[in-house]
Predict the 3D structure of the following.
Amino acid sequence: MAIRERLSGNEATAIAMKQINPDVVAAFPITPSTEVPQYFASFVADGSVDTEFVAVESEHSAMSACIGAQAAGGRAMTATSANGLALMWELLYIAASSRLPIVMATINRALSGPINIHNDHSDAMGARDSGWIQLYSETNQEAYDNMLMAHRIAEHPDVMLPLMVCQDGFITSHAIENIDLLEDDKVKAFVGEYNPEHYLLNKENPIAVGPLDLQPYYFEHKKQQAEAMKNAKKVILDVSEEFYKLTGRKYGLFEEYKTDDADAVIVLINSTAGTAKYVADQYRAQGKKVGVIKIRVYRPFPVDEIAQALSKFKAVAVLDKADSFNAAGGPLFTDITSALYAKGIFGPKVINYIYGLGGRDVRTNDIEVVYNKLLEIAETGKLDSVYNYLGVRE
Amino acid sequence: MSKKELKTVSADANWKEITPGGLIDSSGNAHLFKTGDWRSMKPIWNAEKCKQCLLCHPVCPDSSILVKDGKMAGIDYDHCKGCGVCAKACPFKAIDFVEEG
Amino acid sequence: MGKVVEIRWHGRGGQGAKTASLLLADAAFNTGKYIQGFPEYGPERMGAPITAYNRISDERLTIHSNIYEPDYVVVVDDTLLTSVDVTAGLKESGAIIVNTSKSPEEIRPLLKGYKGKVCTIDAKTISIETLGKYFPNTPMLGAVVKVSGVMDEKKFLEDMVGSFKHKFASKPEVIEGNIKALERSLQEVKGL
């Protein structure tokens, strides 16, 4: 039986970490992720985990400590947001290329500047090509569930890549909502032990990690990394299936909501998907054929699956909570449109909205604006503006 | 887990044949990388002058002073890069330092 | 879609409006509801006006935006009535609940023509008389439950007694005061 609880997204993340009981947590506080290591440090103090908690002096050090701990043979975890993630920058790439399956909670926040502590996805989107697997979470429940699945995915021998579980800062991280927790023993059995083939503390077989790697092999190592990311897709689906059998909660690469006979569909990430579902319900009640697609797995990008899913709609709006500043559209939009082009799918008209930057609240009327535009495009087949800002003051 | 056997990675190994992330999965593999051809100057050991003080051994940066049964036994020219530190360190001028070739 | 009750709290930093909203979420959760409790974070300082929100429903909540058309507004500090537009978007079918020693009739003129129900609760007097100190949260919670009818009063009271006993296990002297504060607030709300 699941444990019925009410928790904030940060509490849920910290409890997942407690149940996972990693060997090392190294973290530095930054809003809005601070509560994750804060709650976790209290579990360490209480003795309810036997994790070594390293209170480092920066996020650069947090990720460095995680890399060292993971290479040594332990499970290492951390949490951060925005500028903290940016300060980890070079280490993100080192963790990924050294094939160290570190797991991190990323509590999405606008990356300065101007300085802002509220939610958007500019932090994680900037790290999208760092070689980390990225799972996104609409709710505290999804943040918890993704965290429980994280190690199984990251540590799979076909994958061996670091993984970040993202959720919206404040909107889910600091909001109390209902959640179903798993019992500790079930989590323990599901997550299992970490038994790497090679690790630094293995005195029987000394190894070296992170050597100089020049023209003869670097390129081949990058190919390995690319293959691992491709493999991750199947592993994510397998682990999600196993999780479904355990909990009854179904997860795929993305979620399709009321898309069966839809003409107009919004594609987006994280908490606003819930608001979009709410509006979709109201529009459906009026007989309007609208739906929502919520991306859960952004890296690896489900290029074939998303192109296939979108092929049946007339009009699609991709909502990006981060701009690429490429004068062309947000990161999710460019990934989705290139997926459609690569698969030879030219049917749906696709537009982009940049929305909710710096924590600008996304209201139901904002979503209505998007659906109304899509329904108009579906009706007329005419497309006037592709790259748009949603609700910005003109 | 037992210690892995040292093996050379062939120059044309493909991405499936090399360790993930360039991990070096066995210790002491510097031995497989011959650096003798970096040398333009060469140390020559003169066994008759040698008093077996072994002061050359700890100063060699490339572990190229060969020691057998606790005694200096020669120079490993496969790895010696010809830095000349051994010749400088020898109190008995038992190591000459000459041009290669 | 089931009926969703939306509540907006106005308070000042340090007065516990956020905590009160979380307590309400807790209480509703304990009676089997789906809940949301979230503050609107800004540049918080002691005394600065702050806003917090609750959604309470019989069905799972998916919406993730602030509340613009609340069913109920709770004002923890009546000095906010002149500086903050507390009735903005408030449904006329709903109510505003103000912590004040004044009567609803005295408060209504400050509410920019709001035509719905105006309720008052003297949380200060109740708190000082039952708890010996000014902790407005418990009486405010009682008043919100009474006015909104969002959960069964009796069930709420039973549940709160249980949670007070659990929460204050190490200081049993405050359990009785809190229970009394709740009971009185349920009875002493004016303007129903």
The mean pLDDT of chain B is 92.
